[in-house]
Amino acid sequence: MDRFIFLTVDGLSRGAVFAAFALALVLIWRGARLVNFSQGAMAAATTYIAYSVTTASGSYWLGLASAVAAGLVIGALTERLVMRRVDPSRPLNAVIAALGIVLVIQAVLGILYGSAYRAMDVPFSRRPLSIGGQAVLSPYDLFVFVTVAIVMIALGLMFTRTGVGLKMRAAAFNPDMARLLGVDVGRMLTLSWALAGAVGGLAALLVVPTELGAHPHATDLVFVYAFTAAVVGGLDSPVGAVGGGLCVGLVLSYVSGYSGSDLSAVVILAVLTVVLLVRPAGLLSRPAARQV
Amino acid sequence: MLDRLARHRLARHLLIAVVAGAGLVALTYALPPFRNYQLATMAAYLCATAGLTVLVGLSGQLSLGHGALMATGAYACALTSAELGDAGVTAPLLLLGPLVAAIVAAAVVGGVVGLAGARLHGPYLAGLTLTLTIVVPAITTTFADQLGGDQGLSVLVEPAPAGLGIAFPLERWQAWIACTAALLTMLLLANLTGSRFGRELRAVRDDEVAARLAGIDVGRTKVVVFVVSAAAAGLGGGILAVLTQSVSPGAFSLAFSLFLLMAVVIGGTGSLAGAVWGALLLVALPELTALLSDNLATSPRLAERLDGNLSLLVFGLVLIVVTIVLPTGLQGLFSSAAGRLRRPSRPSPVDLTHQPTTDTEPTDAQHTSTP
Predict the structure, then answer these.
(1) Are A75 and A198 a contacting pair, CB within 8 Å?
(2) CA–CA dist A219, B298 (Å, integer)
(3) Residue A275 placed within a domain
(4) CA separation for the pair B125, A37 (Å, rounded)
(5) Which of A10, B24, B103, B332 is the most exposed place for a label (fewest CB within 10 A)?
(6) DSSP E strand stretches across chain B
(7) Rounded CA gap, A135 and A129, in Å?
(8) What is the pLDDT of residues A30-80, one digit of tens each?
(9) Which residues contact A180 (CB under 8 A, 6 or more apart)?
């Protein structure tokens, strides 16, 4: 039972990170109707930036801030320099261009930093605190939960309570109509990408230090898990992404806790295949009147 | 005579294959061993890129998992060759058996993915196949007892048959094997894309609803093309295993799958001739960038970092630029240039519509790749 509780908390903690990362995918999907396959590589880049800043300044928080800022910049640049120029009439082109960005980012990181894992520190202890003799939650887990919750509440408030959020929703819902009503749709799209870059960068920074550390490929699996989370929840639904992320985190934690760690990636492949075969639009989706 | 040949697709393709085969045999005698080995590698890649270009270009399904499918073929090849070797089987069965196993294994995996893919659109299938590629190392370590973990497996390969002479170099024999496989793959795919099935594929790609109304079983068509494409990738993987005489998960990374996709995109999606260009680039670009990084690197540490990463960078940049600037790929560029040169001699507009032209291109698939 002890082990079960420990694994559940650990799973929720990792799941919260995948949820945030999945949210980044959902942000771009809702704005541009494409899955950002370069999200993982973009987050790998911001992780290295955090690593460099933290190493130079000695402050974790400065590194965190610079990772988020870099995520904003990289996301906006990707949209402005590449994605905007891709012919939208063939949907595969955007995916292919995003994969090109993956190769470029990973190559640049490999040239700048080499292929050794760079261990990163976390600001709080990862040793679980005991409540009534029962090891439950580490301070770092708490930090992860609070950070992800703040990000989600902030995004939620922004989309529902601010003028910019309303414009972004309008631009995503009906670009032509929004344009007629005076919304700068292109700028809203850039903003979506920037926000996604920042959220993805933050999520990666929460999870990468708990594993082997910064590496050009450190976020490949994170992307796969987040993609699975987004698919499980439905790419259109932010709430679904959060639920999907938590589910994926729990599944991973139970599988790696009760069997061998190597199986978890295989299990995720199985989950993804089954969900796509049974409910391609996500477990939470309602039947659509028309599928495009 | 030529006119009749041009209209008979199978005969034309067979003739091209025979001519190409004869040219390749002559080439293998002219090339030094290392170049022959590179030619063989290129032929192995060509099996996979040709299968992928048919899948992406004609059916509109994007697979990032062809590296994993090649890995499936390579591992099936290694396991079968070990079994056959233990049973005392010798050539030619020791070569053909594993390759057939490679094709079958990849086709089975491709069938499962294709079944999921038949119901999916763009990003979902891409994500599923991406996951397949990323879990390959995890699968090989999970089943380390059978698949050898990170070290991989070795493949039992016999030297060239004694009938060819004692001094016959192994590399030339390898080039013969690989080029035979590539030519057969190209021949089959060229006929497939030009056939009724190829037209059905294009119909499905362009408008699923219209295709369904025309009586095409959309799901079946998508699964079949995925299986065919996977089988071609499996053969490529099997050939690669025979060439390197080993299999390991490191050879089939995500980057490798993206390289295959890049080769297809640069060649021009849907164009079998473009797949040849792509395969050539896959072999030539790493060598060129290695040359470049040798000249650029001032210190051994920098050289180590540039090694491999520089080709990754070039591949990525090329992928982005080609997608934005040249959506029809190299072959599209050549075709339109050739079309411009030839246009004045075209007799009447009738020729442009229904009559097959007397193009000596190996396939007419590239005409369909324009958006």
Answers:
(1) yes
(2) 31
(3) no
(4) 12
(5) B24
(6) 153-154, 246-247
(7) 6
(8) 888 888 889 999 999 999 999 999 999 888 899 999 999 999 999 999 999
(9) none
Q: Quick check: is A89 in a domain?
A: yes
Nearest Cα residue in chain A from B266: A96
CATH number at residue B265: 1.10.3470
What CA–CA distance (Å, rounded) separates A56 from B70? 44
Please name the residue that has the structure tokens 């491999």. Answer: B308
**Reported ipTM:** 0.82
Q: Which residues contact A67 (CB under 8 A, 6 or more apart)?
A: A46, A47, A49, A50, A53, A201, A202, A204, A205
Range of the structural domain that residue A32 is part of: 23-219
The answer, yes or no, to whether residue B358 has pLDDT greater than 60, is: no
Average pLDDT over chain A, rounded to whole?
85
Q: How confident is the model at residue A201 (pLDDT cuts 50, 70, 90)?
A: very high
Chain A residues close to B119, C-beta within 8 Å: 276-277, 280
Over range A22-36, report the average pLDDT. Answer: 87
Does residue A134 lie within any of the structural domains?
yes
Structural domain count, chain B: 1
On whether residue A45 sits in a domain, the answer given is yes
pLDDT tens for B286-302 read 888 888 877 776 777 77
Interface of A with B in 137-196 (CB under 8 A): none
Number of compact structural domains in chain A: 1
